[in-house]
Design a protein that fits this description.
Layout (H helix, E strand, L loop, with lengths): L1 H14 L33 H31 L13 H8 L7 H10 L6 H12 L5 E3 L2 H10 L18 E6 L2 E6 L3 H5 L5 H8 L4 H7 L10 H18 L21 H10 L2 H10 L3 E4 H8 L5 H4 L3 H19 L3 E3 L3 E4 L1 H30 L1 H23 L6 H28 L3 H6 L3 H5 L1 H53 L6 H19 L1
Antiparallel strand pairs: 1-2, 2-3, 4-6, 5-6
Helix pairs in contact: 2-3, 2-10, 4-10, 13-15, 17-18, 17-21, 18-21, 21-22
């Protein structure tokens, strides 16, 4: 009771209202800005009473997330007068009702409350048996058998293969729930005492009769709430929280653990993907993708893509212009196949439709820019000058490449370089004289450059590139052949050196049976052979 009181007082202080008495309730607020931080689904070594309600909260919030995201999509389509082009994802409402249903059949929380009110305190295996009998055919509930308990224990490292050591999951006390995030096994042990949240009647009377005002306030409602268990109060508060969130503008932030080591700079991709899948993020994206995820206002569409349509369509309204463009580019079949749809103020499209439009605009803009540059150069007389300068610069690069490859002095390359330099050099000389004579008058400078010769510049430089590349390739092939022959010769030399060394060894072995003169002749011949082979 004291904990609940402290939480209530903190809430009042955060509201920023006037100071109130000990037992007075806070005045209702006109607006609330709230931040709800919830830990994710838990699957511990042993999942008990606490994990059950933590996972129930996450299950309820997941249902809220799915509902809000789906409703937002429906509202976007409904406001534009477009029929929704996607189907609703399978809801996890059945799992929520497995916990919170008051009747027909009663949920887990309700059955736990009934067990708490019994004098025998139905708990542990007896409570699990009630759940198994009640929810045996329920889609979100799974009866735990010995094999399932053993598999779970091994997966969590609680047992050793081939042995019973550490086995502590008694299937008679366990049941499984198919949550949105996956199947979780719960162990019922002492749940009934944890569910009871009331005092004995005589203790309640003593505390309510206390002379201390704050003690009376803490327990004044004990009699009216004495039959409410922890689970029932929790469910009531959870539904109140969900109702509050549904009434406001809710935004969701998913916190992703990048790696189990909790260190920076490491991303465990399977772990991240698992969290995105179990958190419903991938499902929400897939749901949006199955519809028409790209939405563009007609005015923005026409501003960006007006150049793609005909002049007649451009003079019509934004919506008619948008319809004419998309139908002319993609056809009526695409519209009938729900590839795009027209709303009151926006056009809805598939991703590939918008990507195609952007690619067309980009390609068209590049072509128009090139044409504009060319026309401007021709008008200003700079096209001829640019060609001459670019041809000379390319010649210099080719000449330097030939020198780097050490082929510039070869006859074929040397003749091609000399011929190209003479032809381009003559044009560069004319260009230099024209600039000296006319200064910055590019038109007069361009008129002095022979148009026919300027047109041949590309072919001249390209021919030089071909000669250099061909000779370079021939040199590379020759060097490779030379390397092969040198390697082969080196192997032969090494083999001969090994044979000489063997003769020296044999000569040393028979030194006691041959004369010194013969021995010296043999060793001298071997030394001479080694010297020549190593030279």
């Amino acid at each position: 009771r004291l904990f609940d009181f402290i939480v209530a007082k903190i809430g009042e202080a955060l509201q920023g209202g006037q100071t109130r008495g000990f037992c007075q309730q806070a005045a209702p607020q006109s607006a609330v800005l709230g931040l709800l931080d919830i830990f994710g689904f838990e699957d511990m070594m042993f999942n008990g009473f606490e994990q059950l309600f933590i996972n129930l909260t996450n299950e309820r919030m997941q249902h809220l997330f799915n509902t809000i995201m789906f409703e937002r999509e429906l509202v976007a389509y409904r406001e534009e007068g477009i029929e929704a082009a996607f189907q609703v994802e399978e809801s996890n409402l059945a799992c929520v009702r497995l916990f919170t249903s008051p009747s027909g059949p009663p949920g887990i929380v309700r059955l736990l409350s009934e067990s708490a009110m019994m004098q025998s305190g139905r708990d542990d295996a007896a409570f699990v048996q009630v759940l198994n009998n009640t929810f045996a055919n329920y889609p979100s509930y799974k009866v735990c058998d010995p094999q399932a308990a053993q598999r779970t224990a091994r997966a969590k490292g609680m047992t050793r293969a081939g042995g019973r050591e550490g086995a502590s999951l008694d299937y008679r006390r366990c049941f499984q729930v198919r949550h949105y995030a996956g199947t979780v096994m719960y162990t019922v042990k002492g749940w009934v005492p944890k569910s009871i949240d009331t005092l004995l009647p005589h203790l309640s009377e003593v505390l309510v009769s206390s002379t201390k005002t704050h003690v009376q306030c803490l327990f004044e409602r004990e009699e009216s709430n004495m039959r409410a268990t922890v689970g029932e109060k929790f469910c009531t508060q959870l539904e109140s929280l969900a109702a509050t969130l549904e009434q406001g503008e809710t935004s969701f932030i998913r916190c992703i653990k990048s790696n189990p080591q909790m260190v920076p700079g490491i991303v465990n991709r399977p772990l991240v993907l698992e969290q995105l899948l179990h958190g419903g993020v991938i499902s929400a994206l897939e749901q949006r993708h199955r519809g028409l995820p790209e939405r563009v206002a007609y005015s923005d569409f026409c501003q960006e893509y007006r150049g793609l349509g005909s002049s007649h369509a451009q003079n019509s309204g934004d919506k008619l212009h948008c319809q004419a463009q998309l139908r002319s580019i993609f056809g009526i079949e695409a519209e009938e196949g729900n590839q795009f749809a027209f709303g009151h103020t926006k056009v809805f499209m598939k991703n590939h439709i918008l990507a195609c439009l952007r690619a067309i605009v980009s390609l068209r803009s590049q072509n128009m820019a090139k044409r504009l540059q060319r026309r401007w150069r021709l008008k200003m007389g700079t096209e001829r000058i640019r060609r001459v300068e670019e041809a000379w610069a390319k010649f210099k690069l080719t000449e330097q490449a030939a020198r780097n490859r050490d082929i510039a002095s070869l006859p074929t390359v040397a003749r091609a370089l000399e011929d190209t330099q003479q032809r381009l050099g003559a044009l560069m000389q004319v260009l230099a004289e024209a600039r000296h004579a006319h200064g910055d008058d590019v038109r007069k400078i361009a008129d002095m450059l022979p148009n026919e010769l300027v047109k041949q510049l590309y072919g001249i430089v390209e021919s030089l590139d071909i000669v250099v590349d061909r000779v370079s390739q021939r040199k590379k092939t020759a060097e490779e052949l030379l390397g092969v022959r040198i390697t082969r010769a080196m192997n032969i030399v090494l083999g001969l050196l090994d044979r000489v060394a063997a003769v020296v060894a044999e000569c040393q072995e028979v030194a006691d049976i041959i004369s010194n003169e013969e021995r010296e002749q043999c060793l001298g011949a071997c030394a001479t052979a080694q010297t020549k082979l190593q030279a």
